[in-house]
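My current task is to audit a protein record that another person submitted. Thanks in advance; the entry in question is below:
***
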Amino acid sequence: MTDFQCFSHGERSVTKTLCHTDEMIKKSFLIENGNPVRYRLQTTTDKLDQSESYRKMIFGERDPEKPHKIILLVGETGTGKTTLINTMINYMCGVKREDKIWFEITDDQSKATSAHSQTSLVTLYGVYLKESSRDLTIIDTPGYGDTHGIDCDKEIAKCLQNLFNSDHLIEKIYGVCFVIKADQNRLSDRQQYIFDAVQSLFAEDIAENIVLLFTHSDGFPPKNALTAVKEAEIMCAVDEKNQPIYFLFNNCQSETFEEEYQTMQEQSWNLSYRGMTGLFKFLDPIKPKTLKMTAYVLQKRRELDAKISSLQACVKRVEQKQNELGKTEKSLEELKDEGNTNPTKDVQVSYKEKVDTELGRQATCCTVCEENCHYPGCWWVCDLKGCSVMSKKHCTVCINKCHYSKHVKEYKIYETKTKTEKRIDEDLKQKHEDKIDYELSMKNTLEKELNELEKEKIKDVIEAFNCVEVLKTIGLNTLSHFILTHIDFLIEKLKEIKEHQKAEDLENIKKRAEEKQVPHI
């Protein structure tokens, strides 16, 4: 008997001895009185603050003295994540096929409600059995790749960011499990987007904790699916032969046992339990990854978002100042050509006006500088001194670097507009040259303001590029959709400020993404 087999039979035997199914049944309620008899575990549901988009479903009580394995399951809708979660539960409970029972901890959110916010919940399943040698927390991401589309996927990514930033919920990860159907010949654009999006949340040190779980398997090596994973350049743990580490599962454990197909069903059952044994054998000794580096990745992502937003606003102000300057220069030329006085004139001037944000998004704005310091993306913090654009209680974005108390967070942003004003100067009414002097003064003022804005734009462009450089260095997925979303804009602005080498660096990232065919869903 091999070491692998000893581990499998030994753990199942011990767990079965200790974890009596009768006790489990008492803590469950009947779903279906069939063969097997299906039970749902009576969990405590901890729906956190309404502003949070994740929930906790707990069975048992956490034992701080036990090893606590925390894993993240990610996969496209329809890959069989739900059955996989329940298979883990039954494995830990020591359920065998001959017991003719099946325990479930999951619920069907899509049937429970049609509300978008419910179907996009990230769920933490906590399984804390007194008789088990380990406690287990499963982070499930239902909704990834469902019919709600990309907006729902972005909300789940934000939820995971919020979850990983928590000081008390998730401090380390033992395994990130990518769930894929074993019969796939290639990853769909949606699947590749999902895996890229999740990888972009982590620092590069998480790669050795990523494993592949192939579902709906017939027991044979999933050669085509493995080829698809390699072609998609999915980062994951590898064995001594530098091959991806994976485990096989068949998703028929809860289906009705048929005497006619007993042999095939037993083989399928054993296949999934061998896969589960291998998965836990992989998780038990592996060194968990703290989320400190991941938190730094998320911080740089937020900084990049803030810098891009600030840069876009700055570019708009530059264009408006250039327009004002052009009109002033034209007016000056006309005065010189006319050779006569002009006591009044129309001048296009810019001013700030507060307007409602789009889609009810909140923004952090400076009331002194009248700038939008953090928009869009300012959603997770209420105390403004904790906003990601604040450093040492002062804003890093607005021109005057004002104290956070000079800022407000509301559903409004400043918008720069222009209006026509009649400007009259009594001292300039009589003399044409005085009028020209005035226009020259206006021109000089606008040129100075434009020069300051150009400096601000250069600063924002360089800082945004530096954020990308950091993410490229420490992030697991350099070619993430998140970075590619901003890359064309940054390349254009880098060329404008004559930073051609930096622009070329980003063009190389874009080129690699095109060669890899990173999907823009």
